[in-house]
Specification:
With about 180 residues, this protein is of the alpha+beta class. The chain is built from two helices and eight strands. The longest helix has about 45 residues.
């Protein structure tokens, strides 16, 4: 979407609904499109792409971002909830009816046709923004920070996976060797 008042302003935003690193920030290079776009991405392309952002902000005291988008006569509200245990991206119409959600959660009422008004605003809390080392804008430093965190976490997960596979293979080979020694 375009920012209201800026006819050609374009911004690539990363919305990460990862349980480990939920976040929303600008990115310098757009991410490549997957060969087969997920269902929710197709919904956003059909109902939000080409719209104009009329308002955007954090819901006071919450880790929730609200973005109001106009596209022709249609008005959509994008709710991006960045709670580690319940991240979600919900799109509602002007009356608060859920049009779609990244994660459909019937027990929470987060399904198409349900109603979503967003969280009730609490008293605003003061949050400290930590300093990130390096050069560049805050978003560029944030992007580097999370890329490093994710690559480290991915590497650690892959190492654990390979270690487990090797341990299983070693156990099988040890059992086979013991069986062959008994036969001998």
């Amino acid at each position: 979407p375009r920012v209201a008042g800026e006819a050609s302003a374009r911004l690539s935003l990363l919305v990460s609904l990862s349980n480990r690193f939920p976040r929303l920030h600008a990115i310098s290079d757009p991410l490549p499109n997957p060969p087969k776009p997920p269902r929710f991405a197709m919904f956003l392309r059909a109902h939000v792409k080409g719209g104009r952002i009329e308002a955007a902000g954090q819901v006071a005291g919450e880790r929730v971002v609200r973005i109001d988008v106009a596209r022709g006569d249609e008005r959509r509200t994008l709710w991006i909830r960045l709670w580690a245990s319940a991240t979600n991206f919900i799109v509602t119409d002007a009356d608060g009816v859920i049009l779609d959600a990244m994660y459909r959660r019937p027990k929470r009422g987060e399904i198409s046709g349900g109603r979503y008004a967003g969280p009730a605003a609490r008293a605003a809390r003061e949050f400290t923004v930590r300093e990130l080392p390096g050069d560049g804008t805050f978003n560029e430093r944030l992007e580097r920070h999370f890329r490093d965190l994710e690559s480290t976490a991915d590497r650690d997960a892959l190492t654990s996976e390979v270690d487990a596979a090797l341990a299983m293979r070693e156990a099988k080979l040890t059992a086979t060797l013991a069986k062959l020694e008994r036969r001998l």
